């Protein structure tokens, strides 16, 4: 009797279907990489992107806010003042100094008076007579202008005033335009074309780094095109969400996040795809396996950052809430583009997309013999020395935070000189600097005299101007302080004014305007830092717990990540002050920088540890970590350099805030990539061994599916 031996089962079938049947990730990856599935995913992606951009093409995001909560005292004062008949008018200040450097003459004052009259006819408001300074070396004219609905409207008004002065300058005088509306106009004008410049610089950086990474004249175009489409869709979605919620946001940071994170995800997927092509003849099967191998890490990484950004919805600063909402949506758009569109685009191109270095089946795998694998092997042999030395280095870098001041004055908020900032400096030399941005005190009309007397007695007050007549429910008292707006002295004056005004019984007096607004913005930013930071840490712990099924690993990894973030903030603060010359950090920089450092920095840890867990099933925890560092070293390093360079591109924008965020986050990403991921994490894992995964255990995989760990 003849018996037939059971057919031999292809071990790759076990690898693809370890349970004997395909799971939903296997089915999805197979569909995405099939001939028609790849085409459908790309065409569907283009169609959806076109529909979204077309539908939201006319939607405009809300204008930039003032950075204070709506219930802050300064915001309440502004709302009360908006009820007054003259609320739509505010003065710009014409500050004139003789070009000779000598005292201003009567003839020059007459010319300045004539100029004020001409400009008053142009703006429809009467200008004040020129007021010379006590030292006689300057004069000032207050020119009321009608405020527009947005800063861009004020920018046009101020631009017209400056143009009129340039066309008919007073003989022998330098005249600059400053004051509240001028500062707002300079902010709006500073961003003219800036976001386009940022986009071009960002695209150029990503293109160059992708070209250097892949060494292919073709391959870099595919992920760059997909990410560029994602950025455009994210921008339109951000505008829509901003319009719907009424929250403003910074489009520059949104673009940087989408390009940086999207490129990182693409690098991870393509790296895994290249690995699979070295052992698999069918490029569609190779992409299917690469997708299943990298998608969990990409998904976990993305959701970590998205959830961290969504914690910003609990902030009290409106612009911070807007940034969290729109950035989270933008990263979800990037995730969809990379996981559902990029695989199809790569599969349609086939192996030839890697030309001239086309990976072939049978080429073998030498990733563990590379420099990153050798570094990891040395690290795990001396984990105590490496971990101790690394933490000491981070502590040294973190010491840069000692003595760091938080809070910028108005003239220090711009990179480069602006006319309004120059005018403020000139005013501070010859006039009370507070005239550029006076305090507004609102009170019950019946208590004007008592409140006026109270604020006059506050040290640092130069002049108090009571209302000409009190009508309606509120009266406005103008207070001019001696300190320059936004300086620590002006913030102390704001606190003292509020104490004095609040102490007047039954007056219901509130202090806003000037540095009171800056004070409220700093207090709100400090509150958000205290509330949001613990939530961001909690989000990271929870995501790592569900990803790794471990209690020890999330604590260790997050501890290293936080140490890295603090070190980056210390180094960035030191360089910001000592090299770039910024006197302080902007008030919102600590929160935004810390959030990005922790959320984005944990990305690389997730990429590494997710791979290490798979390798540990074959090799054990210690050797699995070495293998994981070797296999992911090149791609994580490339991703870190790309992300750091993209954030550095924020330096092309005119605000110091964005330059500081770009500097600190860029440095932090490099520290995470080159030190934490390469040395400190492997050292910590080597010290803990299998306890790192507790309470989970890492058991060797069955031989039939062992190859899947690769």
Describe the model:
The protein is α+β, with helices and mostly antiparallel strands and 710 residues long. The protein has helices spanning 11-16, 24-33, 35-55, 73-81, 106-123, 151-167, 180-190, 194-214, 221-245, 251-277, 283-310, 318-349, 371-381, 383-398, 419-430, 448-456, 488-502, 514-548, 552-578, 589-619, 621-648, 656-688; strands at residues 89-98, 131-132, 139-146, 173-178, 439-443, 461-465, 475-481, 510-513. A 4-stranded antiparallel beta sheet has the order 2-3-1-4. Strands 6-7-5-8 form a 4-stranded antiparallel beta sheet, with helices on both faces. Helix 10 runs antiparallel to helix 11 (283-310). The longest helix is centred in the C-terminal third of the chain and has 35 residues, at 514-548. The model is unreliable at 1-15 and 702-710 (pLDDT under 50).
What is this structure, in a nutshell?
With 710 residues, this protein is α+β, with helices and mostly antiparallel strands. The protein is built from 22 helices and 8 strands.
Low-confidence stretches: 1-15, 702-710
Average pLDDT level: 84
| Annotation field: number of helices | 22
Structural class: alpha+beta
Beta-strand proportion: 5-15%
Strand order of the largest sheet: 2-3-1-4
Helix content range of the residues, please?
Answer: 55-70%
Largest sheet: 4 strands, antiparallel
Order of helices and strands: HHHHEHEEHEHHHHHHHHHEHEEHEHHHHH
Question: How many strands appear in the DSSP assignment?
Answer: 8
Write out key terms for the chains shown:
710 residues, 4-stranded antiparallel β-sheet, 8 strands, disordered C terminus
């Amino acid at each position: 009797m003849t018996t037939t031996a059971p057919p031999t089962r292809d071990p790759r079938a076990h690898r693809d279907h370890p349970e004997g049947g395909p799971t939903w990730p296997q089915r999805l990856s197979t569909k995405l990489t099939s001939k028609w599935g790849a085409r459908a995913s790309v065409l569907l992606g283009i169609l959806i992107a076109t529909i979204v951009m077309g539908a939201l093409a006319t939607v405009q995001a809300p204008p930039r806010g003032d950075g204070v909560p709506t219930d802050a005292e300064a915001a309440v004062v502004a709302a009360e003042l908006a009820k007054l008949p003259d609320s739509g008018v505010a003065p710009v200040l014409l500050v004139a100094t003789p070009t000779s450097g000598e005292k201003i003459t009567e003839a020059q004052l007459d010319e300045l008076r004539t100029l004020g009259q001409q400009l008053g006819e142009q703006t429809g408001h009467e200008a004040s007579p020129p007021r010379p300074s006590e030292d006689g070396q300057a004069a000032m004219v207050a020119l009321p202008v009608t405020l527009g609905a947005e800063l861009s409207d004020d920018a046009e008004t101020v631009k017209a005033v400056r143009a009129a002065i340039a066309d008919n300058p007073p003989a022998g005088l330098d005249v600059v335009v400053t004051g509240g509306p001028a500062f707002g106009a300079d902010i709006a004008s500073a961003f003219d074309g800036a976001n386009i410049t940022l986009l071009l610089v960002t695209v150029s950086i990503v293109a160059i780094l992708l070209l250097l990474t892949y060494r292919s004249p073709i391959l870099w175009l595919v992920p760059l095109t997909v990410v560029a489409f994602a950025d455009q869709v994210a921008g339109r979605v951000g505008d829509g969400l901003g319009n719907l919620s009424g929250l403003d946001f910074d489009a520059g940071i949104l673009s940087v996040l989408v390009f940086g994170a999207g490129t990182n995800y693409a690098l991870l997927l393509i790296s895994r795809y290249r690995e699979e092509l070295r052992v698999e003849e069918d490029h569609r099967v190779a992409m299917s396996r690469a997708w299943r191998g990298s998608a969990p890490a990409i998904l976990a990484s993305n959701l970590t950052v998205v959830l961290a950004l969504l914690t910003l919805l609990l902030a009290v600063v409106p612009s911070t809430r807007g940034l969290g909402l729109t950035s989270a949506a933008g990263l979800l758009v990037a995730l969809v583009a990379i996981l559902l569109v990029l695989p199809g685009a790569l599969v349609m191109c086939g192996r030839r997309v890697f030309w001239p270095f086309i990976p072939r089946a049978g080429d073998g795998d030498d990733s563990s013999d590379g420099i990153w694998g050798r570094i990891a092997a040395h690290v795990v042999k001396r984990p105590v020395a490496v971990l101790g030395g690394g933490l000491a280095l981070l502590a040294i870098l973190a010491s840069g935070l000692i003595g760091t001041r938080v809070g910028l004055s108005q003239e220090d908020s711009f990179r480069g000189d602006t006319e309004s900032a120059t005018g403020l400096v000139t005013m501070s030399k010859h006039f009370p600097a507070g005239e550029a941005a006076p305090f507004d005190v609102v009170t019950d009309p019946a208590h004007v005299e008592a409140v006026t007397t109270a604020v006059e007695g506050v040290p640092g007050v130069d002049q108090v101007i009571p209302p000409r007549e009190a009508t309606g429910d509120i009266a406005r008292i103008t207070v001019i302080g001696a300190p320059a707006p936004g300086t620590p002295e002006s913030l102390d004056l704001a606190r003292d004014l509020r104490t004095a005004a609040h102490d007047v019984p039954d007056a219901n007096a509130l202090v806003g305007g000037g540095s009171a607004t800056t004070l409220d913005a700093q207090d709100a930013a400090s509150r958000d830092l205290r509330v949001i930071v613990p939530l961001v840490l909690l989000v990271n712990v929870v995501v790592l717990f569900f990803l790794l099924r471990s209690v020890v690993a999330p604590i260790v990894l997050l501890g290293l990540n936080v140490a890295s973030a603090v070190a980056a903030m210390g180094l960035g603060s030191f360089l910001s002050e000592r090299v770039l010359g910024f006197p302080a950090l902007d008030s919102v920089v600590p929160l935004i920088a810390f959030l990005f450092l922790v959320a984005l920095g944990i990305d690389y840890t997730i990429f590494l540890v997710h791979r290490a867990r798979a390798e540990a099933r074959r090799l054990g925890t210690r050797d699995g970590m070495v293998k994981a560092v070797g296999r992911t070293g090149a791609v994580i390093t490339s991703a870190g350099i790309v992300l750091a360079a993209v954030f550095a591109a924020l330096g092309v924008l005119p605000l110091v805030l964005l330059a500081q965020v770009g500097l600190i986050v860029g440095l932090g990403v490099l520290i995470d990539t080159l030190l934490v991921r390469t040395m400190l994490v492997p050292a910590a894992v080597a010290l803990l061994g299998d306890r790192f995964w507790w309470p989970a255990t890492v058991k060797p995989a069955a031989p039939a599916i062992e190859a899947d760990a690769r």
